[in-house]
Amino acid sequence: MLKSHYKFIHEAGTDEAGRGCLAGPVTAGAIILPEGFRNSTLNDSKQLTELKREQLRPILESEAVSYSVCHVFEEEIDSINILNASILAMHRALDGLQTAPRFILVDGNRFKPYLEIEHECIIKGDGKFMSIAAASVLAKTYRDEFMAKIHEEYPMYNWKKNKGYPTKEHREAIRQFGLTKYHRKSFRQLPEQLTLDL
Predict the structure, then answer these.
(1) Which domain of life does this protein belong to (predicted)?
(2) Which helix (H) or strand (E) holds 25?
(3) pLDDT by residue (tens digit) across 115-143?
(4) What Rg, from alpha-carbon coordinates, does the chain have?
(5) Is 126:15 a contact under the CB 8 Å cutoff?
(6) Per-residue model confidence as pLDDT tens digits over 71-97
(7) For 18-62, what is each residue's pLDDT tens digit?
(8) 12, 35, 97, 186: least buried by Cβ within 10 Å?
(9) Which residues on adjacent β-strands are paired with residue 105?
(10) Residue closest to 56 by CA, chosen among 75, 38, 82, 71
(11) Every domain of the chain and the residues it spans
């Protein structure tokens, strides 16, 4: 059972999606849920079907005190590394909140202080707190939507299905067609690849 609050009202949950992908942005969601918010379906986005995530998104958006989603794209990921890009995406998502949070719940174990607001990192937090689970659903649905859009441009990588993750099919397509502007050049795209000729 997910907990609704940790310490305060106006507590923001934040989480990212797409950290382990070879292509596309890393996307973060931040959300403040109203006090007493309950939803029996809501869970860590990885535990939910795509359909359930899609059904939850408009509910979360309409009931949230405030929410925001931010993409950090490949060039920035390559220049500052994926960990920093993930934290930057969360900071930018927090920047987008219309209501200033009094406390921030972060999924995972790495974060950098945001403004003067106290935060807590919670490992597997998206399975423990509603606000983090809600942020994970927003991050995942917005990122999946973006990957489906760029799939139209490069259908041979099947991003609509693999979302840019290093599946066997995705790696085969990289072998066959090379890298696109959406691929993260700093990532090891193929198992045998040790250096990239840029």
Answers:
(1) Bacteria
(2) none
(3) 999 999 999 999 999 999 999 999 999 99
(4) 17
(5) yes
(6) 999 999 999 999 999 999 999 999 999
(7) 999 999 999 999 999 998 899 999 987 888 999 999 999 999 999
(8) 35
(9) 13, 120
(10) 38
(11) 11-177
3.40.309.10, 3.40.50.1820, 3.30.420.10, 3.40.50.720: CATH of 11-177? 3.30.420.10
Which amino acid, one-letter code, is at 132? I
Amino acid identity of residue 176, one-letter, is Q
The strand order across the sheet containing 26-32 reads 66-72, 26-32, 11-17, 103-107, 119-122
Exposed/middle/buried for 133, CB within 10 Å: 0-12, 13-18, 19+?
buried
Residue 19 tokens read as: 């950290």
Binding-site entries for a divalent metal cation: 15-16, 107
Residue 2: predicted pLDDT: 84
Which H or E element spans position 76? helix 74-80
**Which residues have a Cβ under 8 Å from the Cβ of 187 and sit 6 or more positions away?**
22, 82
Alpha helices, DSSP H, located in 100-167 = 130-153, 159-162
- Rounded CA separation 24/38 (Å): 32
